[in-house]
Amino acid sequence: MKQLGVLDSAFVNLEHPTTPQHIGGLGIYDPSTAPGGFVRFKGVIANFERRLKKHDMFRSRLVSVPGDLDRPYWVLDANFDVEFHIRHLALPQPGDWRQLCILVARLHARPLDMARPLWEAYIIEGLDNIPGVPKGGFAIYTKMHHSLVDGAGGSSIMSVIHDLEPDPAAVPEGPDTVMVDVAPGALYLGTATAVNQLKNSVKMVGSAASTLKDLGKLAWGVAKKQIPMPSISSPRTRFNNPVGPYRVFEAAEFTLQDVKLVKDVNGVKINDVILAVVGGAMRHYLQHHNELPDDSLAVSIPLNMRPRRGVSDDNNQIGSVFVEVHTDEHDPIDRLKAVYASSQEAKVFGENSPLVDVLRVAGVLPPVFTKSVVQTYVNNELTQHLPLGISSVVSNVAGAPFPLYSAGAEMVRYYGLGLLTPGVGLFHLAFSSAGIVTLSVLGDRESMPDPAFYRECIEKSFKELHEASLKLASNAKASEAEKAKKTAPAKSASKAKATPAKTPVRGRKAAASKADTASPGKPPAKKARATTRKATSRKTDAVASVFEGNNETNVVSLPGGSRS
User: Angle at the Cα of 61 (from 56 to 63), degrees rounded to 5?
Assistant: First the structure.
């Protein structure tokens, strides 16, 4: 039995029917790598069950404290039933990408049963008309409560539900004996709550003093212009409307090689490239609907707080900062440079501001108080009266650089799904694995009724940025070649002038005549070798030219091009 951490408890307290606090993922698998070349549903369940024996969090449920006066506890469920958590579905004909997106959006919109272990998995078959999906391929959609895991810890979840080898039998079995907890009684919980309240009161006093001190340092740094202050008054858009209970899902894909090309040419980070693509996509989308503000929109980006806080037993170690994505910039390169500057300023602010931990407030106070505030806040749509205009959350997660398998089937694609908050109806999640970067979109259905069009906006935004980066690289290469060409004759002339003639002209002619007479066959041979070397050089240049000419925007997309 273990009590939830402050941030873990915050996500439980923020749970609401219209904004459930779970995250998810959609993996697509190739069964040809499994023993026998196919996978049965029973095999997937057996694989899950075998691996879950080693990880208590998937078998743990919440136990609330009487009166919700303290943070709840994780208790190993004595009645854990793996078949309740894993369901089997199939797409109806024709089984295309649009149908899969609609199904995943509906599954993700449903809140988890808070009385059971907080995760579910769905095996989805019938992906017969999705371009790029292997024959017999299937999908696994998983969702788990945010109190179980954060984005930075997502790789541990991937390792829990996947194997490193195509043959699961090669992995040692877990223990046959599974431990469970005896549910604590009201007396024990009441006593523990009284003790914790005393401890928490002391901690809160110390924490408040420390926070006030840090805020003072922050204010001084901002006043001295040593710490940049992020924009907190960005324009509000349709994505700031009250979030309803229904969702939409879409995704675009790019090669990691193309993303790195943009990064290297412009001297930025991959996260900056993702933010610039999102800024361009939002610009195209809102411009299409005649809703593009004159000023730049801003997004929230999660921060991994583990390096700052050190080792902790809490499942969540995240903070957040705001970054402008410069939707007011038409030129993609100018937008990327501006995003890079904004992200650097946000990084400095995040390193010096206690406000990155503001989410902890929802977990510090007793649940009975926090939950009532959340219900009032959401039900009365109070986000409409806040000046803060954050149009989206953008998260970037690096996946495993090696193959992963489920019941022997290799994972060929993975799309991450985040969560929506009452005032932010759009979430982007970038996930890189196996040379592919997927950019998934989760949106409120009322705010974004046309998710397929938004996916096209993402692809258009990346194509513009990639082509502009290719042009920059080409111009830089041509400039270097021109510079080298101009300096070459000067060096040759200087060398010729500095070298004295060792033999008179008559002597050189005589020597040449003597050489021609003595060795009549050698000069043609030398000439032939020179011709061969010249031809080889032309061939090498042609091959290099072919590769350079083929370095076009490569937007790989499992979805078909005519989705709507």
Answer: 130
